[in-house]
């Protein structure tokens, strides 16, 4: 479940839940009260992964990054903010997600993408490399396009979704 790579092991904060079928390798930091669900694969081997607080990575998702090179000296780490819901079978690769985001099931977010705060990315969306998604909108499609501003109800739901997963992971932790 948690594997060391080149002497670096995943670092978990207080209250984190990792399903026993998930695999986390190397330089991965996970914030307080976050959760990683069944069959997630996260490889912090050629760069690092940082996941914020109260963030959930749902079943079958893949988290990876881009290696450092002579043409890209820093590579692209994977950085995920606080109160983020990453839906089932999402692929996140060398991108940066802000806070209060919902990434819909089956979405793909590629290298050097910046997703600002308070965003919903629709299921099945493809966010191509080097794109910035502006705060406060719903994005859908392949390639992704800005659809419309989020409603107040949707903005409120972003934190509710994250909190629902905090409560669920607490139930799992109590089961032991």
TrEMBL record:
Gene3D superfamilies xref list: Hexapeptide repeat proteins (2.160.10.10)
Superkingdom as given in the UniProt entry: Bacteria
Name of the protein: Anhydrase
